[in-house]
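Long-time lurker, first post. I've been practising inverse folding by hand and with some scripts of my own, and I keep getting stuck on stretches where the structure tokens seem ambiguous. Below is the full token string for one chain I'm working on. Before anyone asks, I'm not after the true native sequence, just a reasonable design that respects the backbone. If someone could post their per-position residues I'd love to compare against what I wrote down in my notebook.
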């Protein structure tokens, strides 16, 4: 392979799957991580290692990255895309949903980053791309715990960029508005889901995951001396 390895978490659907297809078409070998291995394998991408990994398990993430690097060479980028959106009111949302979002949306980003960052720093090159959300920049009804995790991703990304910039490593934050993915399906409150779908419809629909994948690829393909620090994108009709 002439192009370097890229790691993508949460690659079984939505933004992750779209990004995997796009970067594979551009010639990159890939390590795809998700809990649904069969969905990864259905992508049928060449020069790709698929592993059933929960990103809340730091050891499993590191083991998969080590296996992929042994096969394809050093990871030049990671797309920390795995995440979950569980909407609810703080007064009555099950507390275990907060734990799940913190573990996946925040710790999962830390685990993915830790698995590739030491090698990047040693080589003086590499790119960490964290998929956050517009909800990492502003608040929304019934989003309090989710917003907290995405604000954390934004802060983590900017602080990390400051830590590693002098070593030649880039950190990029991708902040999409509503995207047509499976995220909403995990929310258990049917009224909140109905209201969210009505809000999306009033905005003229949500982004196609392919559009977000193209934003990720755009940031990555810039010269290593250029960091696109953040890309914020949303459907034109989305006011918030």
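-- Answer (accepted) --
I ran through it position by position. Result:
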């Amino acid at each position: 392979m002439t192009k370097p390895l890229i790691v993508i978490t949460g690659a079984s659907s939505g933004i992750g799957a779209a990004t995997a297809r796009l970067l594979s078409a551009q010639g990159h070998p890939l390590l795809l991580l998700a809990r649904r291995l069969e969905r990864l394998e259905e992508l049928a991408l060449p020069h790709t290692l698929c592993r059933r990994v929960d990103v809340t398990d730091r050891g499993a993430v590191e083991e998969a990255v080590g296996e992929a690097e042994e096969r394809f060479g050093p990871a030049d980028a990671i797309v920390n895309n795995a995440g979950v959106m569980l909407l609810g009111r703080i007064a009555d949302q099950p507390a275990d949903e907060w734990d799940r979002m913190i573990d996946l949306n925040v710790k999962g980003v830390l685990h993915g980053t830790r698995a590739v960052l030491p090698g990047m720093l040693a080589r003086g090159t590499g790119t960490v791309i964290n998929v956050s959300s517009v909800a990492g920049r502003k608040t929304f009804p019934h989003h309090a715990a989710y917003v907290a995790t995405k604000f954390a991703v934004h802060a983590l990304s900017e602080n990390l960029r400051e830590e590693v910039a002098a070593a030649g490593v880039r950190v990029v934050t991708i902040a999409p508005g509503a995207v047509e993915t499976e995220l909403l399906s995990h929310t258990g409150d049917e009224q909140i889901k109905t209201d969210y779908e009505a809000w999306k419809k009033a905005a003229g629909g949500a982004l196609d995951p392919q559009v977000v994948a193209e934003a990720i690829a755009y940031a990555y393909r810039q010269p290593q001396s250029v960091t696109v620090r953040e890309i914020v994108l949303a459907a034109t009709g989305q006011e918030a």
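A couple of notes from the structure itself: Residues 95-123 form the longest helix (29 residues). The chain has one domain: 5-232. Happy to go over any region you disagree with.
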